[in-house]
Structure of Glycosyltransferase:
Amino acid sequence: MSIYSVFYEKLPLCIEELLPSRKGQSITFLNPYYIELLKDKVSLYEQFDYICSDGMVPIMLNNIWGKSKSVRISFDMTSLAKRVFDYCQKSKQSIFFLGSSQDSIDKFVKVIKTNYNTLNIAGWHHGYIKNEIDSVIDCILKSGAEVVVVGMGAPLQDEFVIYLRKKGFVGNIYTCGGFFHQTTEKINYYPKWVDTWNLRTFYRLIHERYVLKRVLKYYPRFIISYSLFLKRGLK
């Protein structure tokens, strides 16, 4: 099975499938850059319940080739993050945040507490845990968290999710990429007009220069390979 097959098969039909009301799910997000970069990680991504399209390009290609499925879903405040936080606050489910630097995760939690003052935050920890993975997992399990959000970049965050699951965590786990770092100053990283007009990628191209290199190098390759996969009937 190819990475394209796994990606397409595990796309959610709608965002509601991903909320913490459905227990025990492992959910991650891939964009064309990571799909191309991680082609040899098929066995890793087969272990996830859902893989969301973090960007519009795969969804547009699905539609163009008559294989319509899913919508763009990212773990940020324009998409799933807001729905998860709203749900956890309303249902009183506790949440643990893991990722980024100590300074960034501290600032992120402060922003979240300001905007979600009754959200039950079970704990948080920076993402530089190479030599303390098991102790961090023990901390998460002892915290009583029902939801865990992991932002360490792919494939590290995805490998951690699967390991955490194997160690006995039974709640929902979401990866979030650079969400913590993007949310250190304010709750909404994207201006409202950027989200309204679906200009998030262009906004990042301007404000995060490394994104341009990724787009130029990997997106054309993805568009060709994924289009051939769709044209061949998902084979």
